[in-house]
Amino acid sequence: MTDKIKVGDYLIIQRQKYTKLQKFNNLNTTVNLGKDQIELRLAENHPFCTTFHLVPKQERGRRLYTLDALSTPSEIRNLKELLIKESGNDNRNIIDDRQSQALSTEEILKLREECESSSEVIGKLVENSKSFATKTEYSQEKYLKRKEKKYFEYITIRRPSIRLLTDIYWRLDPEKVLGVRFDTLSQIISYSGVCSVGNYLLYESGTNGLLPAAMLNSIGAETGGKLVHLHPGNVAQKQALFAMDYPAEQQARCVSVNIYSVLRHFYQDREGAKENEAQEPVVAEAKENETLEPVVAKAEDSTDGERAEEVNGTSKRKHEETQDGTAEDEPEAKQLKVDKQKQAWELENEAAASIMREKFDSLVIVAKEHPYSILKALLPFVKPSRPVVIFSTCREILTESYVDMKAEASVTYLRVTSNWMRQYQILPNRTHPDVTMSGSSGYLLTGYTIGN
């Protein structure tokens, strides 16, 4: 992980309060911000958190921009200080008849092509507005912010973080992350007790890799913590994991496997081990019989001795063949061939099963499905007195699981909680909650396992 932007990185493109996740695939990559297309070619080798000025390219019918890095962010002009010179006491005499702007749409489009900066365009709009000077100072600030949002010509390229990714996914479509908001995600990480040591078990059914990325972030780089990420599909969703660009050794400690496949592999291995243990006495008895056969052959008559000599001769030839490597090497070659043909998912199943034998220090379930059957399948792999966290968007589902877990008495200190985050606008004499805000971000069922 480097501090400079390079091809192949995931980038957070920020334009004022708007953020977007974009992969820098090659030097010809462009990012769309509304109707604007921005070339990312010149962002290469610049440090993250660099602010760039959008320089328009003269191409007919396209709003295409290239980047010019600013030496300091202070080069961005403060429109409030530049344009607000006088203001009115109130807005009661302002009539919204859509006639206050003297410039036509064609003239404004021409201004955008001729002016070098957005502040010049906004300045011309203010000069030709009949009602701007009579508005209150607060109304003037809102007008400038609205126009600045439309004509703002600066972007900042930032490194992806868990908070930024969560905000982007939530704003675009909460269902793509199962309704997990940033405050709820922080509660999941806190209740599960994920840290740099121990083994952790996660089942999630579609959060674009946000949950495993957040848990792996808490485990950290160059630590002993391991994460087994279970999912229901053939391929795990890992966009957030790829976007975070963790070091290779940290990514290797996150094993993503299909839940059905790894459970089948684990129990088949355990049954195979039991069968081998049961066969050991039989094999030992057979070996004792083999050692007794030569003794019995020597005690037989002379005629039988000749036959025994022939048998010993054939066994001697077999022994010589095994020394030459012609007979017993064949099974080994076949076994090596079988081992080489193992696919990636089989190796991942083996790695996950080996961690499952050690058992886990925490269990987290974030599922679309009813979580109780998943919980029953995974709970035997959790150590005693370890946290269990279950997330669902439906309170009734967690209530059912709560009652069933109470009846089984396998988990104690059960609680169902919900976060309700409310954002406030803090301004002088104008402090109030935001008009539009999200309500509940799902529910959490938490508890601790009981030792057998």
Give structural notes.
Strands 2-1-7-5-6-4-3 form a seven-stranded mixed sheet. A seven-stranded mixed sheet has the order 10-9-8-11-12-16-13, with helices on both faces. The protein has a two-stranded antiparallel sheet with strand order 14-15. The protein has 452 residues and is an alpha/beta fold. Helices cover 43% and strands 20% of the residues. Strand 3 and strand 4 form a beta hairpin. Helix 3 crosses helix 4 and helix 10 crosses helix 13.
Strand order of the largest sheet: 2-1-7-5-6-4-3
Low-confidence stretches: 282-323
Largest sheet: 7 strands, mixed
Structural class: alpha/beta
What fraction of the residues are assigned to beta strands by DSSP?
15-25%
Radius of gyration equals: 34 Å
Choose one word for the global shape: elongated
Number of strands: 16
The N- and C-terminal alpha carbons lie at a distance of 44 Å
* Helix percentage range: 40-55%
Task: Report mean pLDDT, rounded to a whole number.
Answer: 80
Number of helices: 15
Task: Annotate the secondary structure layout.
Blueprint: E1 10-15, E2 18-23, E3 30-33, E4 36-39, E5 50-56, E6 64-69, H1 79-83, H2 105-114, H3 118-127, H4 137-151, E7 154-158, H5 162-172, H6 182-192, E8 199-204, H7 210-219, E9 226-231, H8 239-244, H9 248-252, E10 254-258, H10 259-298, H11 302-324, H12 329-340, H13 344-358, E11 363-366, H14 371-378, E12 387-392, H15 395-408, E13 411-420, E14 424-425, E15 432-433, E16 440-449
Parallel strand pairs: 4-6, 8-9, 8-11, 9-10, 11-12
Antiparallel strand pairs: 1-2, 1-7, 3-4, 5-6, 5-7, 12-16, 13-16, 14-15
Helix pairs in contact: 3-4, 10-13
